[in-house]
Amino acid sequence: MQDDSVIIAEAHCDGPCGVYDPASARIAGEAVQSMTKKMLDLSCPETSDSAGMAAYLNTMSRYAAIKEQEAQKCKDELLILWTDFFKPQHLEAHPDLHGTFWQAAKLCSACKVEVSAVHAQELMDAIEAIHNLFWAVKERDVPWIRAS
């Protein structure tokens, strides 16, 4: 016998917000790419210039910290999409879904431990592919637009 006073609710995640968008991963990825470029463009002064070295190290460490934070944020956002939004029927329609997300997450890790313009661009390319996949699943045509 079913108790009619019990309400059965189903949700795809811990809180059934239903709000998903790869834009947050894109913004974080753009920050990673921006910080990587800034790090590669920063000129190191002569080591005998103590004030110049202090300023250089301060700026470089700030860029590195932001790059690492944003790479982790990007990874977190991608993992939420992968594990909470996408369902088995999406995998059936897009058999490369797991590989796409796995590779993007690995690129986030690579961007944290390296200063590589190549990996930063590969991360942005992976995020764009996920953007296109996500909106195709939702049957919406949302253009890829970068903030930077």
Structure write-up:
The chain is mainly alpha-helical and 148 residues long. It has one domain (23-137): Nickel-containing superoxide dismutase (Four Helix Bundle (Hemerythrin (Met), subunit A), Up-down Bundle), CATH 1.20.120. It has 5 helices and no strands. α2 runs antiparallel to α4 and α4 runs antiparallel to α5 (117-137). The model has no long low-confidence stretch (mean pLDDT 92).
Task: Map the helices and strands.
Elements: H1 23-41, H2 50-85, H3 88-93, H4 97-113, H5 117-137
Helix pairs in contact: 1-2, 1-5, 2-4, 4-5
Strand content: under 5%
Estimate the helix proportion, in percent: 55-70%
Number of domains: 1
The CATH first-level class comes to Mainly Alpha
Task: Write the CATH fold name.
Answer: Four Helix Bundle (Hemerythrin (Met), subunit A)
Q: Can you count the helices?
A: 5
CATH superfamily membership, which one? Nickel-containing superoxide dismutase
Main attributes of the structure:
mainly alpha; Four Helix Bundle (Hemerythrin (Met), subunit A)
